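Researcher: I'd like a candidate sequence for this fold, 67 residues long. If you have to choose between options at a position, lean toward the conservative one.
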């Protein structure tokens, strides 16, 4: 399923990035381009990170929508 329509990024790509060590939305942004356009995918991407990474290790303040 597409999570980031602006950049054509799927949930599978995000899960693979997290499995490879990405632990924050900032890292997903740097590696895949998540939340780099309209930003509306950020919350969903963050929920996918939460599936694998304990919440206490996440810095949710890294999520920001690009205006």
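Model: Candidate sequence:
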């Amino acid at each position: 399923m597409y999570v980031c329509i602006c950049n054509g990024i799927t949930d599978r790509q995000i899960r693979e990035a997290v499995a490879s060590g990405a632990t924050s939305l900032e890292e997903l942004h740097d590696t895949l381009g998540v939340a780099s356009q309209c930003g509306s995918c950020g919350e969903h991407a963050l929920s996918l990170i939460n599936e694998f990474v304990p919440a206490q290790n996440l810095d949710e303040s890294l999520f920001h929508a690009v205006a």
